[in-house]
Design goal:
Helices cover 61% and strands 0% of the residues. The chain is mainly alpha-helical. The chain is globular and about 55 Å long.
Length: 173
Amino acid sequence: MVDERFLQQALEHLDALHNLAVYLTRNGSEAEDLVQETYVRAMRFSHRFEPGTHLRAWLFQILRNTFLTFYRLRERESTLSESGVPEGDAPMFHDAPGEDSERSGVYMDLERALVRLPEEFKTPLLLAEVEGLALEDVARIMECPVGTVKSRIFRAKERLRGYLKDYGEEPKD
């Protein structure tokens, strides 16, 4: 039986887990399934959680491992829309401007660039820079040393700079 307090604390991280699931799956219904499976596993193995440690990081680790087990095995190419962004019913950025906005092109280019990143670079970048987790927590989630996390984040940013290099150039008169 799951401790009610544990369940309450775990549910506080629902939105953050859903955000990462959307980033990973690029599909709203798959993201919901992934989060649901994450909570099922968390409840099943709640006795393994050490009170006083970082519950959010532990939940992210379960989500990532579940993703790698079930979703990455499919290794299917996602269908691309005409804009080059993978089709799906969930936008990567929840606060993205509407399609008629001038900034929408910037968001689409950023989404395209993030989609091109391999999971091993994208996940630590999103966990550290978007979700704000400490590098030590990201290392636990990724099951690798902190130095590897730093290297992967650096390499992710370098690739993003390359993909988005046109944004760094000054307009020519």
